[in-house]
Amino acid sequence: MTYLYRMLLWMLLALTAFTWTAADESDSYVYVAPEDLASYWVASKKVAPRYPREPQMRGTQGCVSLAFVIESDGTTSHHVALAVSPSMMFTESTIKAARKFRYEPADENIDRQSVLTFETFTFQISYDRDRGTPADQVLLSTTCSEAAVKKLGQLGGG
Question: In the chain, what is the straight-line distance between the N-terminal and C-terminal CA atoms, in Å?
């Protein structure tokens, strides 16, 4: 699926105020902020994105805030980058990893409600103490997360 197709699909979801009914009308998706996700779904399998070789060799760091739907069977779909820094170079790796995520419904989610949420992934090279600190990773994550929340607000979901 091309990036443009995913972006158009994301906009379709956003324009319907994050409530979308699938063609068979059996699945309804609601937006859930990352901090509230545990009330709906608990991760049973997470895969870390692979650091792309070229940015890693150059020492390029970055982040991706990725929106996705957790389906009623615990798989993920509709992966769209909401915010990236410094460019799209980390997006493909992040989407590949998120496609492998699996979730189990929380006790409160007896109906296995599908949700639209997002997660922020950072790509950072390990530094020695003279070149960087763990605060750098927090800054990267915060930058992308804030941009994603802003974008969601612009699209009507935040």
Answer: 26
Contact yes or no for 69/22 (Cβ under 8 A):
no
Closest to 105 in 3D by CA, of 68, 78, 73: 73
Query: How do the domains of the chain map onto residue ranges?
Result: 3-21+28-155
Q: Which pLDDT band, with edges at 50, 70 and 90, does 151 fall under?
A: confident
- b/e sequence 51-71, b meaning 16+ C-beta within 10 Å: bbeebeeeebbbbbbbbbbbb
Supply the CATH classification number for the domain 3-21+28-155.
3.30.2420.10
Rounded (10°) CA dihedral 101, 105, 107, 112: 160
Per-residue pLDDT of 52-66, as tens digits, reads: 999 989 988 889 999
